[in-house]
Specification:
The chain has about 1000 residues and is of the alpha/beta class. It is about 25% helix and about 15% strand. Strands 25, 26, 27, 28, 29, 30, 31, 32, 33 and 34 form a ten-stranded mixed β-sheet that branches. It has a seven-stranded mixed β-sheet with strand order 6-5-17-16-15-7-8. Strands 1-2-3-4 form a four-stranded antiparallel β-sheet. Bound molecules: iron/sulfur cluster.
């Protein structure tokens, strides 16, 4: 038989070209090469049932391995790339993961973290059975319990809280959701406003700026077709949706696009940029405004787009009542608004030469409507007022008319599709003040990182607190305040960790319940990665493989290791036990429709969704003789549309405009019902008019168009919401000087950047992947040579002490010109630890074997001290590789030494720190931490003073503008501030 090795390369190339032409002529996708006939990049899908590879270990013998290839979705970041599990047909186990070429977002590509899923599955330290605490919290003593015991105990607590009207004492706190709405649906069915997220320590600063412009909180840049790509992040290596975006940015660069990167640190992304700007942290909005001012002063903006789509008329009416409401009058005012944001001003703020800024601005001006931009964490997550970074960035897009254009930036809701589920419970009728306090009426997401301080202030308590893929003690700032409240049973009655792996937080839990990795659970996803919409399916691959072989599987635990479960089945089971007879009205949302009175299964849940809520999928599946669920189990992702285009320009059909009413500002209202849609992607929901008619569009040059889901229906250059809710001075895109602005630093202080990711790690969950740990396991402090000389730090590797406002940490120096002088940087991924409370044993876990140091933690008069007792190193386990760990430096847990910095508008934690840095003191050791949590509480109180609470500024007696997005939005009546004050 002919093999690839037998064929001359030239002949191979000829055959590939011929095969490509033949395949494309049939209208099918061509995989470059095909195994056995010629070189293959991906196994052709028609051979996924029995894919044959030669065993590398058996070489030179030609030993065949037969695989069933089963798709799932990576869970190692939010990009949700497709994976293909190679299920060995002989052993029935997964041997490896590679990319799924059928996935429209990732297109067969993955970063290092995707294939490393196999490490997580085979991790010798993973949690395999439900555990219950058997000593005091934090003692590290555990006993194995049955799922029944854990479920009954939790169900009894939750049922009591619900029936005793203590619904706000139930909270589920998500780190990485990894799904689109399942948990919110469960909480809604319980009637509790108990959803909490990590978003205010992550992306809410970035979201807020986009939300006030578009009514939608995420950008969706069409990188692949852009002429200029402007990134305020390390997007190519670790940003949001970075693998799907990185491949499209690379595509654009190959076609001549220019890439501009703003990043104080020389990231891998910056090394690939045409223009790398290393600004003083917090000055990014000033740079954006200088670019915008250049477009305005040179009339380099798209006048017709601005005239048609900005809410300039509303702005003039409200803010310049003496000026005629004409576009020309607005242009005159606009020219003056940003005139002070010269290149000279931006240069003074940022430290970047005015000539460089001018050159960048002219490159941007040349992009026209092919200007793609992105900002997510980075500067928007680092600075007081950081949300203005994304608001000023989108100002550039809005000036260029590069909104929902080819090569421009879309609102994400148009490039995302969330199918409607089988049951939709009503909005809860309660308001959780521990997550949505009155001080932060405009917060983009839950004020999650203030929870310990609210509990310490006696604002409430929690009866049952779940965390899921979330490690608050380690991830959040001020983790020792978290530890203090998690150890206090009066504040947190029962603490439950839903997790695949041990963590610093799970250590304090009452129940640790093992949940599956990305190849061991069900979820659906859809993310904005190009101008199209797709739905991806994460699934337990061994369940899918056995089902394909005709073996029934009714519970994911039947195929997962140990008693590892998945949350979807867990939540259904728990909901049934909370409401066993259905009298609480909960059970109905977890019942089968096909078999009333029995539990809803994951097969029915997803089967219904794919059959009824994903346009085009039933037909596509039927063409292959499959049900929609079978099709998704076989291929893993389905593209619904491509080339959505400018949705805001769509004309609203007359049939949708009964009882038409047009406001003076051009907002169009109707009493007609909206056209039915299966897509429930979240977006802002504009308020109805006084007659209760819904906002259906906006009048533009005499035509009713769909517009944007903002109060005005247009892009909101001026935000009536910010103006009405106490912040009129920030209603326009502007520049807020950061809490780490040079004018606020003492002469011996520098700025610490602590927000950056490493490309091969992802917070807590990647630490149990040995390949990734070997690649990246430490986080030295980046220091410019000039600063090193200034502070007396001799060499790379020397210990430095970094002093924050509540304590200090000791780390190793990395002296590098990859950071601007006056700024230091340290990645947040490292410094994992386990307490030296008990020896490792079956009931006292190791945690992440190669990444966790064993530490001592003690409290003295001046606060907490943590010191390293034993570094990570080789150890015995079921995996021989754990004996081969050659590193012992696993970095430092700097986040413990940061106090909370809640932005008074967005609610974002402002991560940047003003610090002092110098050589380590005598006796200091690598990894040492000192923290005064009393001082941390004082800093929290200082930042609280910056707020303008809803009780003082709300224009209508509600807690929050109803139109703003909110996860698990409560019913309208819960928005009203009670007459007797909150908490009643
Ligand atoms: S970018 Fe990497 S970690 Fe993120 S989903 Fe894709 S493969 Fe997984």
């Amino acid at each position: 038989m002919e093999t690839p090795e037998d064929i001359p390369l030239e002949e191979l190339g000829r055959r590939v070209s011929a095969a490509r032409a033949a395949t494309e002529a049939r209208g099918e996708t061509f995989y470059q090469g095909a195994s056995r006939v010629h070189l293959a990049a991906f196994p052709p899908r028609e051979r996924w049932d029995d894919w044959v590879e030669l065993s590398s270990r058996a070489w030179p013998a030609r030993e065949e391995r037969h695989y069933m290839l089963v798709p799932t979705t990576c869970f190692n970041c939010e990009s949700a790339c497709g994976l293909l599990a190679y299920v060995d047909r002989q052993t029935g186990q997964v041997r490896k993961f590679e990319g799924n070429p059928e996935h429209p977002g990732s297109r067969g590509r993955n970063c290092a973290k995707g294939p490393a899923t196999i490490n997580q599955v085979t991790d010798p330290d993973r949690i395999l059975y439900p555990m219950k605490r058997s000593g005091p919290r934090g003692s590290g003593r555990w006993e194995r319990v049955s799922w029944d015991e854990a479920l009954d105990a939790l169900a009894a607590r939750i049922r009591a809280a619900i029936t005793q009207n203590r619904r706000n004492e139930i909270m589920v706190h998500l780190g990485r959701p990894g799904e689109d709405g399942y948990t919110e649906r469960v909480l809604a069915s319980w009637g509790v406003d108990g959803h909490n997220s990590h978003t205010n320590v992550c992306s809410s600063g970035g979201r807020t700026g986009f939300q006030f412009w578009m009514g939608i909180d995420r950008p969706s840049p069409d990188h692949a077709h852009a002429k200029v790509i402007y990134l305020i992040s390390a997007h190519l290596e670790s940003g949001h949706y970075f693998n799907p975006h990185a491949q499209r940015i690379t595509q654009a660069r190959a076609n001549g696009a220019k890439v501009i990167v703003l990043d104080t640190r020389l990231s891998n992304t910056a090394t690939h940029a045409d223009y790398w700007l290393s600004p003083q942290p917090g000055s990014e909005a000033a740079i954006n405004l200088a670019v915008a001012n250049h477009l305005i002063q040179t009339r380099g903006y798209d006048r017709d787009f601005v005239r048609r789509w900005w809410n300039w008329a509303e702005y003039l009416t409200q803010c310049h009542p003496d000026v005629p409401v004409t576009f020309e009058a607005f242009e005159e005012i606009l020219a003056g608004l940003y005139a002070d944001f010269t290149f000279g001003f931006a240069a003074a703020e940022s430290g970047i030469d005015a000539s460089v800024l001018a050159e960048v601005a002219s490159v941007v001006a040349g992009a026209g409507s092919r200007f793609a931009c992105h900002s997510w964490r980075s500067a928007a997550a680092g600075n007081l007022g950081g949300w203005q970074v994304s608001r000023t960035l989108f100002l550039i897009s809005a000036l260029l008319g590069a909104v929902a254009t080819e090569g421009g930036t879309f609102p994400n809701a148009w490039n995302k599709f969330v199918p409607r589920p089988i049951h939709v419970p009503p909005h809860p009728g309660v308001w959780q003040e521990l997550s949505w306090p009155l001080e932060y009426p405009l917060a983009q997401n839950e004020m999650s990182f203030l929870l310990p301080h609210f509990l310490k202030d006696g604002r409430g308590k929690l009866d049952t607190y779940f965390i899921r893929v979330y490690n608050p003690v380690w991830t959040n700032p001020d983790g020792l305040s978290w530890m203090e409240v998690l150890c206090d049973e009066d504040k947190v009655g029962c603490f439950v960790a839903l997790t695949p792996t041990w963590s610093e937080s799970a250590w304090f839990a009452d129940y640790v319940l093992p949940m599956g990795h990305g190849s061991e659970r069900h979820d659906t996803h859809s993310y904005e990665q190009y101008d199209g919409q797709w739905v991806g399916f994460r699934q337990p691959v061994l369940r899918a493989a056995r089902t394909r072989l005709g073996e029934p599987v009714t519970d994911t635990r039947q195929v997962n290791p140990g008693e590892v479960w998945e949350e979807n089945e867990f939540w259904t089971e728990l909901s049934w036990r909370i409401d066993p007879d259905g009298s609480l009205g909960i059970r109905q949302y977890h019942e089968s429709r096909a078999h009333p009175g029995s539990k809803l299964t994951v097969d029915e849940y997803y089967g219904w969704m794919f059959a009824n809520s994903v346009p085009g999928l039933p037909e596509r599946a039927a063409a292959e003789g499959l049900s929609p669920l079978e099709w998704m189990r076989r291929y893993g992702a389905f593209e619904i549309t491509r080339g959505q285009g400018a949705q805001h320009e769509q004309e609203v059909p007359a049939a949708e405009l009964a009882d038409l009413h047009v406001s003076p500002a051009g907002r169009v209202y109707t009493s007609a019902a909206p056209a039915p849609s299966a897509n429930i992607v979240p977006a802002g929901a504009p308020a109805p008019d006084e007659a209760g008619r819904r906002a259906a569009g906006v009048m533009v040059d005499g035509v009713v168009r769909r517009g944007f889901p903002t109060p005005s229906g247009r892009l909101e250059f001026w935000s009536s919401t910010l103006a009405a809710w106490g912040w009129p001075e920030h209603a326009l895109p502007g520049y807020i000087r950061s809490h780490v602005h040079p004018s606020r630093l003492a002469a011996d202080q520098v700025v610490l950047l602590s927000t950056f990711r490493l490309p091969t790690q992802i917070h807590t969950r990647s630490a149990n992947a040995k390949w990734l740990d070997e690649l990246a396991h430490t986080n030295p402090v980046w220091i410019h040579p000039a600063d090193a000389a200034r502070f007396g730090i001799g060499r790379t590797g020397d210990l430095v002490r970094v002093e924050t406002e509540i304590g200090h940490f000791v780390a190793k120096a990395w002296i590098t010109e990859g950071i601007r002088p006056g700024v230091i940087a340290c990645s947040h991924h490292m410094g994992r630890w386990r307490l030296d409370a008990a020896p490792s044993s079956a009931s006292s876990p190791r945690g992440a074997g190669g990444m966790m140091a064993t530490v001592g933690l003690d409290r003295g008069d001046d606060g907490w001290r943590m010191e390293r007792r034993a570094p990570a190193g080789p150890y015995s386990s079921a995996d021989p590789d754990s004996q081969r760990i050659w590193w012992n430096d696993t970095g430092v847990h700097q986040n413990l030494t940061f106090s909370v910095h809640p932005d008074p508008i967005s609610g974002m934690h402002c991560w940047h720190q003003a610090v002092r840095v110098g050589p380590a003191a005598p006796g200091d050791r690598h990894g040492d931490i000192a923290v005064d949590t009393g001082r941390a509480h004082e800093v929290y109180q200082q930042w609280l003073l910056m707020t303008r609470p809803a009780g003082q500024v709300s224009p209508d007696g509600t807690r929050r503008p109803h139109w703003l997005m909110r996860p698990l939005k409560p019913a309208a009546e819960a928005f009203v501030i009670p007459a007797a004050g909150p908490g009643t």
